[in-house]
Amino acid sequence: MFDVLAQTLEGRPPLNPVGQLPHLDWQWHGEGVLELSPRHACEKAVVISAGVHGNETAPIELLNQLVAELLAGSRPLNVRLLVVLGNPPSMRANKRYLHADMNRMFGGRHARFDVSDETVRAQELEQLLAEFYHNASAAGATQRFHYDLHTAIRGSLHLRFGLLPFQPRPYSAEMLHWLEQAGLDALVYHRSPGGTFTHFSSEVFQAESCTLELGKALPFGHNELSQFRQIRQALEALVSDLAPPQRRGESLKHYQVVQDIIREQPDFVLNISPEALNFTAYPQGYILAEQSGKIYRVEHAEEVVLFPNPNVALGLRAGLMLTLKD
Ligand code: ZN
């Protein structure tokens, strides 16, 4: 049987793009995009993606192992599954991206960027998700999920966390329960739309979607996959449509975004150390950032920072501030 990761890295598609195994059908939809369908009816249409940032290797390896087990028949497939390795050229280069960050481009935002492999790929993935969810619905799989797997660049006080896209409808209890059992340390609730892959699937297809940050990125072959055991077990349960294993350890913390720090002026200064860990706390009144005409201060008794980055282009987000969710 073929190896999705190896064939994607080598740029070598399978000779025949469709195949039948005794227990499932598979279809190669394009570089790094593989659909697996069980022979029996099922209720869930699940997208699991990794490698939207090409150097975030551990989740790619984890996903590849899972696919290998499904193809080998050693793990039952009880959902319709689309596996997506997001950005193969940047995976080959072991870079986050080659031209621009693909995870800002979804929901048609690729049109605002200079044309590159990444804008073309974002558009292609949008179409593939549309076809996958549409065909799955026609086959009776109407419950839609999408988990996009990442690892963070910087260190974090919460090692593993999920980012829930903003959506006007409530998040499904089933997804929140799964996220709890997946061993995440924290969940962050966005308060505004964005160009992420999961915001796109949530908004356009009403999928239950979450971006998962699963620790720190290392090159292929150097990841200690044992630290991903809980998320791995949760993904195994997901594809077999079984209840996820019981959570161990401390309970999950829920955070809401309370400020988006935007770099709007050339004189923008971010008063957060470039080495600050995600979820570092700042006290009320602290001046987070300054620029002509605008000062960002901590407004609540305490706020914690996520993804601080002073070097973003004008008009983009230089960081998020969060509080514990009430
Ligand atoms: Zn990432």
Automatic annotation (TrEMBL):
AstE/AspA barrel-sandwich hybrid domain segment(s): 251-323
Cofactors, names only: Zn(2+)
- Pathway(s): Amino-acid degradation; L-arginine degradation via AST pathway; L-glutamate and succinate from L-arginine: step 5/5
Q: What does this protein do?
A: Transforms N(2)-succinylglutamate into succinate and glutamate.
**Could you identify this protein by its name?**
Succinylglutamate desuccinylase
Q: Which species is the source of this protein?
A: Rouxiella sp. WC2420
* A GO biological process held by the record: L-arginine catabolic process to L-glutamate
Q: How is the cofactor bound?
A: Binds 1 zinc ion per subunit.
The annotated active site, in chain numbering, is E213
Q: Which UniProt keywords apply?
A: Arginine metabolism, Hydrolase, Metal-binding, Zinc
InterPro entries noted in UniProt: AspA/AstE_fam, AstE_AspA_cat, Aste_AspA_hybrid_dom, SuccinylGlu_desuccinylase
What does the record give as EC number? 3.5.1.96
Molecular function (GO) terms for this protein are:
hydrolase activity, acting on ester bonds; succinylglutamate desuccinylase activity; zinc ion binding
Instruction: Give me the residues that bind Zn(2+), please.
Output: H53, E56, H150
Q: Which family does it belong to?
A: Belongs to the AspA/AstE family. Succinylglutamate desuccinylase subfamily.
Superkingdom of the source species: Bacteria
Per the database record, which ranges form the Succinylglutamate desuccinylase/Aspartoacylase catalytic domain?
44-238
Reaction catalysis annotation: N-succinyl-L-glutamate + H2O = L-glutamate + succinate
